[in-house]
């Protein structure tokens, strides 16, 4: 895909697949979208799918499957124990990650649950390049503390740094020197760092982290959920990897880590998860907990059909022409928005296009949840469902004080091979309109606020009747009824 040159200039990302099964979409009139948003408590997680035009909430469990994945699902061997399906998945995971042991679990956070239960002790620290919501919640619930040691560039909205997901090696050394290695449970590296805009780490950086961990006898735990994007960026951007295949890069990464876990809702384009390792002791400890929390060792809470799909999906992930689709669409969308002056995270990462809500709505303080407000406004203006990734996605500290997020982002995820370029152009159009009318957008406040992972189920309301003003302006600018009745 990246190789294709266009004769008349104006290169666009070219899909290396064709669409053979489709799902009908609805585009409701804006008045109905406003109603749906209000009913959902201004929380895009609580919208109903028939009300959503483009679902850019996440890439989790919603990537398009290939014909080969679907075919494999038909030959799944359904049995509680000893299923052939598991043998195929087990062999594929161990081949790709070059590990001796594999354990199946029902999704990524299930891996985090067991790893935290086993390795996080009260008052220990887990240094990481950046946290993810569920990984942090599991560490905290087990009495541990997360220390983020990202490079300074990580939080710069606009940067040229090719690897904003790198860990700061000097800060890691300093953290170990101050606290002592015995206070550290393990070092967590997250591929395709989710919450800072799907930004990758480099192989070189991981090699340096390994060196420090070797010096202090520490384990590295890799969260490989977003590895596909990270692999693509390493191949594209890192000199030492230019001649390596995607599989060789995958193995090089895995060989630097003690334990690798992944959400197969992302990696492998199925629905499941797993942990792999060469460390027999760790394997034996985790294995004990699988039947207790997940299911028997040959399915770990996954359906056999999904396991077959993951086996094929993992092999397909080793194809650069497959894993480049999402990053190239994201780069297209990000660059087009930037040309129109819309504040976005650069360089474009994996996972999705990220709007910088702090700059977009610079008239709103973080306590009014600008990223949440922008996600709600975008749904009203377009039928596009994005995800708040800012202060709403944090939780209050023990004293009930709001923890302000480092960044206020609206993530527009790019599920792999799902959207066409014209749909992306529609998204760019509506986001640009919204940006020109940004002063109409007001803040949000909680109606019901759960204590843990509040962004999933919390309900909010607006601090004024700004949605009415937005709808009025939309009607003025875009007419009463367009061809799509929107
Ligand atoms: N780690 C990372 C980096 C993730 O992005 C996710 C999920 C998980 C772990 C947890 O995996 O959902 O299978 O339990 N991210 C989803 C998202 C929820 O929308 O970004 P899971």
UniProtKB/TrEMBL annotation:
A Pfam family assignment: Beta_elim_lyase
Molecular functions (GO terms): carbon-carbon lyase activity
GO biological process, any: aromatic amino acid metabolic process
Domain Aromatic amino acid beta-eliminating lyase/threonine aldolase: residue ranges: 55-425
Residues spanning the membrane: none
UniProt entry keywords in alphabetical sequence: Lyase, Pyridoxal phosphate
Names of the cofactor(s): pyridoxal 5'-phosphate
Modified positions (N6-(pyridoxal phosphate)lysine) in chain numbering: 266
Family: Belongs to the beta-eliminating lyase family.
Name used for this protein in its record: Tryptophanase
Organism this protein belongs to: Anaerobacillus arseniciselenatis
Taxonomic lineage: Bacteria, Bacillati, Bacillota, Bacilli, Bacillales
């Amino acid at each position: 895909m990246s190789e294709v040159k266009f004769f008349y200039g104006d290169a666009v990302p070219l899909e290396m697949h064709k669409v053979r099964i489709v799902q009908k979409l609805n585009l409701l009139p804006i008045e109905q979208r406003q109603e749906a948003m209000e009913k959902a408590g201004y929380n895009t997680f609580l919208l109903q799918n028939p009300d959503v035009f483009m679902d850019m909430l996440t890439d989790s469990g919603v990537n398009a499957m290939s014909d080969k994945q679907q075919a494999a699902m038909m030959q799944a061997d359904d049995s509680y124990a000893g299923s052939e399906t598991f043998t195929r998945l087990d062999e594929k995971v161990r081949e790709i990650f070059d590990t001796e042991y594999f354990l199946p679990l029902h999704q990524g956070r299930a891996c985090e649950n067991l790893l935290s239960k086993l390795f996080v002790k009260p008052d220990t620290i887990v240094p990481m390049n950046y946290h993810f919501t569920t990984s942090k919640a599991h560490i905290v619930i087990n009495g541990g503390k997360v220390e983020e040691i990202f490079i300074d560039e990580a939080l710069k909205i606009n940067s040229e740094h090719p690897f904003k997901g790198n860990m700061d090696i000097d800060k890691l050394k300093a953290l170990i020197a101050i606290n002592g290695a015995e206070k550290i449970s393990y070092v967590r590296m997250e591929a395709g760092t989710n919450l800072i805009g799907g930004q990758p780490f480099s192989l070189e950086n991981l090699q340096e982290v390994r060196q420090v961990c070797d010096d202090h006898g520490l384990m590295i735990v890799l969260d490989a959920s977003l590895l596909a994007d990270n692999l693509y960026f390493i191949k594209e951007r890192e000199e030492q990897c230019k001649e390596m295949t995607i599989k060789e890069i995958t193995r090089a990464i895995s060989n630097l880590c003690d334990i690798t876990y992944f959400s197969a809702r992302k990696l492998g384009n199925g629905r499941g998860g797993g942990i792999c390792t060469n460390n027999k002791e760790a394997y034996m400890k985790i294995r004990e907990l699988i039947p207790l929390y997940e299911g028997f060792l040959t399915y770990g809470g996954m359906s056999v059909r999904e396991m077959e799909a993951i086996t094929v999906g993992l092999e397909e992930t080793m194809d650069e022409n497959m894993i480049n689709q999402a990053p190239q669409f994201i780069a297209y969308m990000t660059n087009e928005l930037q040309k129109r002056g819309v504040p976005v995270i650069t360089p474009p990462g994996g996972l999705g296009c990220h709007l910088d809500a702090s700059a977009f709505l610079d008239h709103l303080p973080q306590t009014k949840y600008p990223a949440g407000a922008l996600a709600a406004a975008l749904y009203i203006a377009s039928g596009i469902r994005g995800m708040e990734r800012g202060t709403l996605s944090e939780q209050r500290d023990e004293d009930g004080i709001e923890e302000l997020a480092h960044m206020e982002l609206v993530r527009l995820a790019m599920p792999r091979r799902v959207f066409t370029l014209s749909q992306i152009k529609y998204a760019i159009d509506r986001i640009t309109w919204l940006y020109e009318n940004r002063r109409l957008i007001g803040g949000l406040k909680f109606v019901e606020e759960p204590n843990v992972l509040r962004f999933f189920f919390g309900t909010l309301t607006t601090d004024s009747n700004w949605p009415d003003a937005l709808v009025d302006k939309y009607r003025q600018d875009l007419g009463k009824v367009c061809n799509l009745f929107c």
